[in-house]
Amino acid sequence: MAGNGFGQIFRFTTWGESHGPAIGCVVEGVPPRIPLAEADIQPWLDKRRPGSSRFTTQRQESDKVQILSGVFEGQTTGAPVSLLIANQDARSKDYDAIKDQFRPGHADFTYWTKYGIRDYRGGGRASARETASRVAAGAIARKILGNKISVRGALVQMGPHEIDRKRWDWKAVDENPFFCPDAATANKWESFLDGVRKAGSSTGAVIEIVASGVPAGLGEPIYDKLDADLAKAMMSINAVKGVEIGDGMGVAALSGETDADEMRMKGGKVVFLSNHAGGILGGISTGQDVVARFAVKPTSSILTPLKSVDKSGKEVEVSTKGRHDPCVGIRAVPVGEAMMAVVLADHLLRHRAMGG
Amino acid sequence: MAGNGFGQIFRFTTWGESHGPAIGCVVEGVPPRIPLAEADIQPWLDKRRPGSSRFTTQRQESDKVQILSGVFEGQTTGAPVSLLIANQDARSKDYDAIKDQFRPGHADFTYWTKYGIRDYRGGGRASARETASRVAAGAIARKILGNKISVRGALVQMGPHEIDRKRWDWKAVDENPFFCPDAATANKWESFLDGVRKAGSSTGAVIEIVASGVPAGLGEPIYDKLDADLAKAMMSINAVKGVEIGDGMGVAALSGETDADEMRMKGGKVVFLSNHAGGILGGISTGQDVVARFAVKPTSSILTPLKSVDKSGKEVEVSTKGRHDPCVGIRAVPVGEAMMAVVLADHLLRHRAMGG
Amino acid sequence: MAGNGFGQIFRFTTWGESHGPAIGCVVEGVPPRIPLAEADIQPWLDKRRPGSSRFTTQRQESDKVQILSGVFEGQTTGAPVSLLIANQDARSKDYDAIKDQFRPGHADFTYWTKYGIRDYRGGGRASARETASRVAAGAIARKILGNKISVRGALVQMGPHEIDRKRWDWKAVDENPFFCPDAATANKWESFLDGVRKAGSSTGAVIEIVASGVPAGLGEPIYDKLDADLAKAMMSINAVKGVEIGDGMGVAALSGETDADEMRMKGGKVVFLSNHAGGILGGISTGQDVVARFAVKPTSSILTPLKSVDKSGKEVEVSTKGRHDPCVGIRAVPVGEAMMAVVLADHLLRHRAMGG
Amino acid sequence: MAGNGFGQIFRFTTWGESHGPAIGCVVEGVPPRIPLAEADIQPWLDKRRPGSSRFTTQRQESDKVQILSGVFEGQTTGAPVSLLIANQDARSKDYDAIKDQFRPGHADFTYWTKYGIRDYRGGGRASARETASRVAAGAIARKILGNKISVRGALVQMGPHEIDRKRWDWKAVDENPFFCPDAATANKWESFLDGVRKAGSSTGAVIEIVASGVPAGLGEPIYDKLDADLAKAMMSINAVKGVEIGDGMGVAALSGETDADEMRMKGGKVVFLSNHAGGILGGISTGQDVVARFAVKPTSSILTPLKSVDKSGKEVEVSTKGRHDPCVGIRAVPVGEAMMAVVLADHLLRHRAMGG
User: Fold this and answer.
1) Mutual orientation of helices D332-353 and D38-48 as an angle, nearest 10°?
2) What is the rounded distance in angstroms from the CA atom of residue D3 to the CA atom of residue B77?
3) N or C: which end of chain C has fewer CB within 10 A?
4) Does A250 lie at the interface with B, CB-CB under 8 angstroms?
5) Which band of pLDDT confidence, cut at 50, 70 and 90, is reported for residue D61?
6) Which residue has the higher pLDDT, A236 or A51?
7) How far apart are CA D329 and CA D155, in angstroms?
8) Chains contacting B (3 or more CB pairs within 8 Å)
9) Which of A11, A17, A77 shows the shortest C-beta gap to D1?
10) Is D260 on the interface with C (CB under 8 A)?
């Protein structure tokens, strides 16, 4: 109810602030007898970890995850899995300057208005640091999904620069610091983002998450449609302002003839001749790739002074000099993957409950 | 859990199929002593009702709502409000032709795969007829929001044709059959949609919902952010494939300087100099207009024959000759308003629980 | 959240007041392809129906149930099943006398204090008439449990008079108007209750519900233990003040040696040599009979004038002359069975979700 | 859904096993700006702590609680409060003997059957050690309830020996190792329990929890009645087999005249002349003391060998030689208090949401 958890059967609840002693989450609904160790989770955290290239914040966090419960002799027991990640490089005094100011584009003003108190250090609870817990939970979700279902993400637009989809290559994603599936565009982004970074500015981005091998039948209409839960999952990520499934906002311009995914039989199975629907019809997976996209706004922490006010109602100019991501969308890729994984794991178990 | 309800404190659960005896919903969490009668709900249902112009399905439904509980001597009692809407014009035999076929773009294939049984009459549970219940629940939500909060919607794009935002006029919305806020564009849409309709085709649309007067402080981070719940709410509407808050997908192309909404004091209050954020920061309302947009795909029921398969695995051609909306997005306007209203009402009560 | 529903996966939400047009419920989480018709539900409602003997209220209600959704061609579809029971014999004016008074032992004072408004006719939402919806939902739960699991209830104490457990005979239950499993005691109760009834008084009772054939493994520790959910289910029934599992309150007086249920192997299976635990250990079913008991207080509506106050703070004497059950515990038997069935059905589906 | 949490708005989720590195919980729905420190929680944990007298287990645990989140500069922030308690005296090898055996009365057999895996060390997840997390959450709940609402518990029966209620003295509770409100009976219990302990046996108990100062109006009928939630809360505690509100199971023997709590006006307020109802009518608090009682079965770990089986289906004799509570009911007193506090805090916030 207080909004710190996600999922129905596979459910995780996160806690912790950017500059507190630690962050973490409790993962419930993990079926028993699944092999699980820290080593299954750590690689995904490393992918999201700050400080891994000059294009992400220089905050240094090892993000080592610790399993505190729910695993016995290398296997899950059906009990909740408690995960803890210690905070290390928390320079709280960096934030003294803005403790009474509301940074534009940040949650400072709204948290203050809602709660009447605000942990201003590094954004407190509103910090994107919370997404490390999502990635950890997502790693467990992947274990539930098994090897037949893969969840992969990529950056498909940075600022005004989109990739060329004809050059899409999943292998390229791991070979540049942007998770870009198009090597040629990755090169362009490098110089673009260097410019943004040096100017003390920031840029937005679009991330695409693709789940392959998802069986048909996942999703609980009417309100817990698979796409409705994905929309909530993605929109809940920091700085996200738009979510699309399949053709997304673009469907508005289509006619019924162009939008429909026709069907044929192939090897005794139903196949679709296109995937405008992004693998979901009526809120239920079709068996095609599930495709979700989301837009991340430019990091609000920039060098340029912006007009704002402080807690006492005084008008001020705010400029952020600390360590920040020039394109926070990059590190949103593993977060988006995690959210796709947790939604699918939850719906897999929900479907199973009803005999699916 | 089974996905037929929405909301936490203000929660409604819907039931019913397109061609069953009735549809309806149970609305829980309605505070006591709110004046409520059928007459408070009916106008919103009339707005969504089919058969009101040549641009919507010709199915004739009076959509008269009946309050069965929770109201005593003209006031709510705190008990659940049960609402019932009888189905009248349910020509089930129209659907005999497609009872064994999967219509492309529809939920036929996925419902069949998930449940192993399908009420094929008019789409059964997957029919947009279900949205009447949403509108009814939304009318009650509006009573909770009170007069200071208004929720209004408009069609801002039909097919490839967008409105001119400079001509936005809320009054125009009620003066054309498209809920279009730009009279000049409405005229263009009329001939465009006549063409679509006569061709037996269909078209997509974009709907924008604006809530004014929303107090700052609504929304429960991290996972029940106001925008996350709005995203789920809108994506759960039939045929929706994309949801945006504020600048939406467009934020990807922005820089931090252009995206930030600066703040100043005015009359002792914090005011924002722009609203790129759509009235939500960190998942919490800012006090500005809350702005959500969603794209509705073109009606999948079209005259043009499409390739498909049937339950026995035979390849078939499917063409739909029945009564259908050439642009189902039009009637999605009051539905989107209702979903905005229910999300806000729920969060108003949730905020109040925590002392807000 | 507002408390009108019960269950997680198998979940039903009830609505309606004693003297409104109808009562009913929406049942979600019913797996698809289960044969279901009104005739599967009606017999259980008939068992609870008022007016069936001189020992229950003389209000005449046929309690005919109507299925409004979720069933197609005789089978469930996975969509919510909406059930409606019309109110017929609602003599509202009988209640004019007490519209401003708080009847001792009833919910009049608390509803008024909580909500500031009260549907006083027949107890409104607080009336035991609501339990008809539970019984209807329970009938669907039984269909999910299947034939291998039986749920039976009996009255084991009326006023100070307990049954003799050595004479327990399930067949006797259907052969007397008290659901008493001991024919000899039933005879005694008949004259006892005649005395109570003629004196305008009332009496309490204890009901025992036994579920046989329940597989080991149902229950979700820690907080959704099978016995915790049963305790909530039974305590939520009108007028219930105590709930016991197995030896219940009596375990306090036992030693570890006498309380433990020892185990042996029999035909390759684990068998227990006693059932002090009532079929539940650590919140999980053991495979033995699940045994729950609950105490129902004497009907608060009695002829004897009792001291009370009215809405204006005036001291009054209240005496109830209308139609009432001298021992409301009798009709609680089918209600208790229904609550056992819904808890088991929910946990069966929950267990299945986790791979059980 | 997986059952590790309790509450709707004020909600806590626990994790951890008896012999893992730590246990803990995440507490959500804590309103902002409440002063909170470890020192507010520790005294309640100390009250429950093992090893405090010869009548409780000799396992030595300091049970020091650590707040990891949700508190900033001494006040709650509205963010989840994560609490961690390290396990110290975890002699896992004590349990090697029973790793393959099912101890009668314990959850060994059911966990094994349900999950197919079992952390056998000290009962793993099923250990009463989990209740430390409840007590910690309860301490936060007390801060929400404030000083006007007090929650106190006492042991009122040990084995067959009940207290004399005429001698009830709350001060006595803190002056004997049994939380007994009747000093004379406490003396008797001392020799009784010494006998039990030396015989390697164990005994059951009844605990009574009384909340004073609870405002009228708390509780959400129909299914989330205050008493229904209390029943679930208490029954979810390890080894509890019965729960009573007010007169409890005893109401069965009463007549309507004796059971009814009559009302009169006093100083402009409604007062009740008795409290058979235990402060709850129609599931809503009346303003009187809320009184709940529960029975705890005798510790199943006893010296006497009992018949059982092991994982391979071999018949064995099990006798427990480790450190154990001869009357586990004693340490259930602070646990019962905590559960009363969390139920009340949750309902206080739920009531506030609806305008109460």
Assistant:
1) 140
2) 32
3) C
4) yes
5) confident
6) A236
7) 8
8) A, C, D
9) A11
10) yes
